[in-house]
Amino acid sequence: MHHHAYLWTGPKARFDQEALRRPPHPEPPPPGSRPELIQRYREVAAEFPVSDLPPLETAYWLIKPRSLVRGTWPGPDAAAAWLGEQLASYQGRFTSEARRGGHHLSALIDSATERLASGGDSSYGFYLERPTYLSLALVTCAPNRARPNLRCPWTLEVPARDPRAT
């Protein structure tokens, strides 16, 4: 088991484009469907796997481009340390005063460590200066407990990556 990190920041309006954040239905619209429904299905089917937008379900980060992986670690402690570094670097920009406190951030890191150690994923989102949004995710891989059918974006031969190297 290992863990991949993902980070996205961008306009809240783009983050709110939920159709591009969910995988397309496994079956295309039936023949004879309205042309706009067929066209929308095609757009989502083509865009979802390559979009940098955070998926609604954390495990679906695994089908996104490998270039979006910000780091990979064999253990939960190192992955959670990356999360802590990211939270610290953005905490001054959080719009919520309560989220800026060290105790709150420490609790998030502890929670992420526990979830990752038990094979789960960890995902957080924060409003930054308006209208920006920050999404951070740590995804357990090989296999992912929520979606064991999703393949790892890295082969097992790939060594742990330091996110500062990217």
Short key terms for the protein model shown above:
four-stranded antiparallel sheet; 166 residues; 4 helices; alpha+beta
General description of the model:
With 166 residues, the protein is of the alpha+beta class. The chain contains 4 helices and 4 strands, in the order βααβααββ. α3 runs antiparallel to α4. The longest helix is centred in the middle third of the chain and has 16 residues. It is globular, with a radius of gyration of 17 Å.
Outline the secondary-structure elements.
Blueprint (H helix, E strand, L loop, with lengths): L1 E10 H4 L19 H13 L23 E3 L2 H15 L11 H16 L4 E6 L4 E10 L25
Antiparallel strand pairs: 1-2, 1-4, 3-4
Helix pairs in contact: 3-4
Based on CA atoms alone, the radius of gyration comes out at 17 Å
Structural shape: globular
Cα separation of the termini: 22 Å
Oligomer: single chain
Order of helices and strands: EHHEHHEE
The share of residues in extended strands comes to 15-25%
Helix content: 25-40%
Please summarize the sheet with the most strands.
4 strands, antiparallel
* Structural class based on helices, strands and sheet pairing: alpha+beta
What's the rounded overall pLDDT mean?
89
- Low-pLDDT parts are none
- Side-by-side strand order of the widest sheet: 2-1-4-3
In short:
The protein is of the alpha+beta class and 166 residues long.
